[in-house]
Design brief:
about 170 residues; mainly alpha; three-stranded antiparallel beta sheet; 5 helices; about 10% strand
């Protein structure tokens, strides 16, 4: 290859690479990962084609429901805040406008997973009596011990009385 052809080839290659990089960036075809810390919570997410990929928001926390819920609620707050606080500029470059639109779209469409985890409610007296009757019945089965049979009769009688008064 002669030097002129080599130089022309290098020029075309650099022009093609620069154009392709700009086009790829402006369309946003590559998946980009972002982690933003908001009010003490790290919020990871991915975006592609200037849209936040909703399943990726806080995806690293899906195994812990309480943490995942807290993270998704914070993410929703973050998207709303970014949408309202990034000012609209008429002469802003394309990247600025696309970023603002991305956060505003997420603010409108993203639904956080809200979970409330609480301890089990105490069992009712009727349910406790039923469990005791069942346990006493199992203990008295096949037993000729009069004490076991007496416990069964007393606990099941108490259960039946509670059952008849609750109806």
């Amino acid at each position: 290859m002669d030097p002129v052809s080599y130089l022309f080839s290098a020029y075309l290659n650099s022009f093609q690479t620069a154009t392709a990089n700009h086009l790829t960036e402006s369309i946003g075809t590559e998946i980009k990962a972002v982690v933003i810390e908001y009010e003490g919570t790290k919020i990871p997410f991915q975006y592609q084609m200037w849209r936040i990929r909703e399943p990726s928001v806080c995806a690293n926390l899906t195994q812990n429901t309480a943490d995942y819920s807290q993270c998704t609620v914070k993410a929703s707050e973050l998207f709303n805040k970014l949408c309202t606080e990034i000012p609209t500029k008429k002469n802003a470059d394309w990247k600025y406008s696309k970023t603002k639109n991305m956060y505003c779209n997420a603010a409108m469409t993203y639904q956080p997973m809200i979970a409330s985890i609480s301890s089990e409610s105490p069992e009712s007296e009727l349910l406790q009596a039923k469990k005791k009757c069942n346990a006493a019945t199992v203990e008295a089965m096949g037993s000729s011990d009069p004490a076991a049979i007496g416990r069964r009769d007393r606990t099941c009688q108490k259960y039946n009385e509670l059952k008849s008064t609750s109806l």
